Amino acid sequence: MIYLMSDIHGDYKRFQRMLKKIKFGVDDRLYILGDIIGRGTENLDMLEFCMNESNIYLIKGDHELFMQLYLENSSIDISKWKQWDGQNTINELKNVTDKEKKMYVKYLKELPLYIEICEFDIKYILTHSGYNADIDSIINDDGKVDTKLTIEKSVNHDECNYLISKDIHYIPAGIKFDRYIIVGHHTTIKYGEDKIMKNKRYMNINCGNSIRDSGGKLSCICLDTMQEWYV
Length: 231
Prior knowledge:
Order of helices and strands: EHEHEHHHHEEHHEEEEE
Strand order of the largest sheet: 3-2-1-9-10
Domain Calcineurin-like phosphoesterase: 2-190
Helix content: 25-40%
InterPro entries: Ap4A_hydrolase, Calcineurin-like_PHP, Metallo-depent_PP-like
Protein name: Serine/threonine protein phosphatase 1
EC number: 3.1.3.16
Number of helices: 8
Strand content: 15-25%
Distance between the termini: 19 Å
Largest sheet: 5 strands, mixed
Structural class: alpha/beta
Number of strands: 10
Radius of gyration: 17 Å
Keywords: Hydrolase
């Protein structure tokens, strides 16, 4: 079975509860659409678990990018990461060795920005944010947005702006994509929903695990059956 999760945000214990709930096994695959770290208190536990499991595939989110840049001593505005609840991750990183930091950087740099899969003749593209309206889309001959190339164009222009974009939730009705997009990042709680949101163009599976005081929860969906689970 193929399972999807997103925006776990350092909640390793609840993540493990979800794996037990769905009876995740060695023959299954789990795709996580970014932001396994940040905000919670078990960030490195989450990261190392994903690094060591061969059937778990992590897609880069903005918090993974911030951690990468932080470890690389790049020109990252740390105050912005702290503002977006990255302080717990920073605190955990103070206790790791240089060897571990290099291992983390290598893993984070190699994370994909999207993954394409096809199930029951439906072409999906899994990514963290989905769409950046500041970048002109690449349009196919049939008038649909070439989702893959448009994402690549956005990332090449500004990786951070792509990963923090919420634009997919506000695009005009006339825009059509050549893939069905599945995203996380911007929680469904912001739209008054405490469950996975689906429409004809995209699905949002971030149900606000990091804002549980506002009714958020951790969600998971099976792409084969479309069954949903919540913890």
